[in-house]
Amino acid sequence: MRDTLRVQLWPLPTLGVTLAVVAGVGLPRLDGRIRHDMPPWLADYLFGGSADAARSVLGAIAGSLVTVTALTFSLTVVTLQLASSQFSPRLLRTFSADRYVQTTLALFLATFTYALTVLRTVRTGEDGRTGFVPQVSVSVAFLLTLASVFALVLFLSHLAREIRIETMMSSVHSAADRTLHRLLAKRQDTADGDTSAEDPPAALPDPPANALTLTAGASGFLTSVDEEALVKAAVEADALVLIDRLPGSSLIAGTPMGAAWPRTEEPLSPAARTHLAEAVSEAVRTGPERTDLQDIAFGLRQLTDIAAKALSPGINDPTTAVHALSHSAALLCELARRDLGPRLLRDDDEQVRAVLRRPDLRDLLDLAVSQPLRYGAAEPAVLTRIAMLLRELSWCSAPDQHPPIAAALARLRSTIDTQNFQATEHMRLTELIALVDEALAGRWAHGHSR
Question: Is the pLDDT of residue 431 over 50?
Fold first, then answer.
């Protein structure tokens, strides 16, 4: 729920409007109690006009803030449309989760609502009623208006910076980096043969032939797994649960997403099988879009989308693709230092009760390289950056992680051989491939970086 609210534009503005209504009702009452006991020095700094002047000021504030709010919302929508059409639809979450945009809209709407709420308390003294001008309340409205003006200037500056592709990629990189640091532990050094009990298995367990097939309860993208509920269901059934679908993958209701089998030789009873299947279905949550809640590959997916869109014939911007590959290289190097094995969920007795599949380095490297390699096959700059990515990843990874890098290098070499490059371009790419081989062997040839 927190993740859902974080990427919505309405929660903060709604909170701002609510607080504005409370302040618009409460401050005029405070005005009525202290207006005769107010120190003269304080009254000099407060609004000193008549009731008609107060109404004019509050009306002008309310009218102008409606216009400014409409302008802000329009600019936000245009920015979202630009990001979706020119870069990637999956960047929309980055914009909608922008706290600056949400706070600015909240301030504008709160000022508008506050001015209207205070306006209803101003009385001119006609028709036998006692005149009333809430000096403190009108002064607060004036201060909120000044804050809104400054916020508008800062918002325009912020928006001009946010629509730059470099800023977008940096935001995606930062979000992905936070996700992997939150979800993945540092890779354990097992070179001395001391393997900790916390280390995950090298591969997913193979379910037995009589294992219970677990099916998805709803269609959508796998956004998260309630780990506590999953372990509880496995403990109650005394079973081992395997979820073999990756976070971010598309689930179809009624299709298999995992398996469960008893930890002892006793088979699960029909009632236990039914209860376990229902509990697992509720613990695995789906949504209409991918999120970074438990999806460590989502950031790479966004960066690859940017690179692929930049290499499309309609845009033809290989420089942006190269920059996106640079961010992907940095993320892959950090991921290579992390524990990418399946996630083990244990009960209170430290017994493994559930196993969650996570992408390994092969999956992540294929995600980052395959599409740019295909769409940028005829662009030497893109192939050069892919070779450098493989070289950098080779240097940052352990020897047991080298096979997927070698496979990607073979694809790169095959792609280069099929292209009709100039002799100098082909020679430079061949030299870079040799440097990747050197990095795989643990050697870095200085003076040959490009």
Answer: yes
DSSP 218: S
The string of pLDDT tens digits covering residues 77-114 is 887 777 777 787 777 777 777 888 899 999 999 999 99
- What is the Cα–Cα distance from 282 to 420, expressed in whole angstroms? 54
Q: Which residues contact 422 (CB under 8 A, 6 or more apart)?
A: none
Query: In terms of C-beta density within 10 A (0-12 exposed, 13-18 middle, 19 or more buried), how is residue 61 classed?
Result: buried
Lowest mean pLDDT among 19-33, 58-72, 89-103, 357-371: 89-103
User: Cα separation of 412 and 383, whole Å?
Assistant: 8
The distance in angstroms from the start CA to the end CA of the chain is 46
Core vs surface per residue 63-81: b (16+ CB within 10 A) or e: ebbeebbeebbebbeebbe
Question: How far apart are alpha carbons 131 and 135 in whole angstroms?
Answer: 12
CA distance linking residue 104 with residue 324, whole number of Å: 30
- Where would I find the H helices in 46-134? 51-82, 92-96, 99-119
Per DSSP, what are the bridge partners of residue 338? 186
Tokens read off for 235: 């403990």
> How remote is the C-alpha of 5 from its chain's centroid?
12
H/E element, 250: strand 250-251
∠ CA 324-328-334 to the nearest 5 degrees? 150
Which residues lie below 8 Å from residue 37, measured CB to CB, with a gap of 6+?
A: none
pLDDT value for 3 = 66
> pTM score, two decimals?
0.86
Rounded to whole angstroms, the Cα distance separating 35 from 32 reads: 6
Q: What region does 37 belong to: left with phi over 0, alpha with psi -120 to 50, or beta?
A: alpha
d(CA 268, CA 207): 14
